[in-house]
Amino acid sequence: MQIYLDYSATTPTRPEAIAFMQQVFTQQWGNPSSLHTWGQRSATLVERARIKVANLLNTVPESIIFTSGGTEADNMAIMGVARCYGKPQHIIISSVEHSAISEPAKMLENWGWQVTRLPVDRQGRVNPQQLQAALQPNTVLVSIIYGQSEVGTLQSIAELGNICRSHGVLFHTDAVQVVGRLPVDVQKLPVDLLSLSSHKIYGPQGAGALYIREGVELVPLLGGGGQEMKLRSGTQAVAAIAGFGLAAELANEEIATETSRLIRLRDRLFAEMADSPYVICTGDRLHRLPHHVSFCIVPPEGETGDKVTGKTLVRQLNLAGIGISAGSACHSGKIAPSPILLAMGYTEDVAIRGIRLTLGRETTEADIDWTAMVLKQILARLMPQRLAVSNC
Length: 392
Description:
15 strands, single chain, four-stranded antiparallel beta sheet, alpha/beta
């Protein structure tokens, strides 16, 4: 039995998108910047995809800029705003951002910018009052992740965005894990910039987009032919964009039923692991991505459990045919604790033991039941015995 539970890392490309892309590769491969028939057929495909992605966010097509993925969209938001200023200013991010935000922020810091990293509580949420207090006269951008990929926590984006808007500060959110899984309406959500990615919604890898509210100015990161409304030069990847558009259209049609189904499966897995004496739930159980389950492995009191890390469980479950991911990273052969879990107040000893199981279109109740049973068996074999206590 093979069970894939790493949908936050990537999703399998939908057969409908693959078939459409094959058609594009073989029949509509023109350069969309060319004025002849071949080029204009491709240009039409790009614009139709732009409409479909815009519909997923309830916005106008002109507000969607295609990129190579979520990372480029995040970088375009951060650096595109920063490059509007002749001298360093101040930006605010959270302490639980994806590296596509935290790394550009470090770059700006090295160039003299002031960067404030807002703390989070034990559930991984930003306190809006702390954002309010962190704003300065020279704050030009706030970027807060919408749905945290490692622990599943959703931020109060509407409240945070309203604070920024009341102070005239641009607000960006990395919504890569949210779009297509929860309704996102930028007409109601007070965001100026929003990042999304094709391969998180069953589209192809290599495509993404940045939503830019009308009136927001960015300086391009790339010089070139001025494609994508002069904000992202380079010949568009027509087939990938077309597949992205179709995936967005299908996600928009299915989101209501699929979201509720995923929530039921998510809560089923939490419930089945609740009596395990070795796990504690991480992230906010109420404000949570619908497809996301995450735990930390905690050894019995007085035991170190040194041999059991998140990476250990990834390998063990992989041997059982189950694909999950871990939050900690490996550097030069040494396991490093997850910076997300550290920011949430977990100790280093616990922060190397995080795991994430994320569900998707192909996940069934049988998959959930089998995974819970196998995970419990692995934990019972690897961990010293102790009395069962519900930690979820």
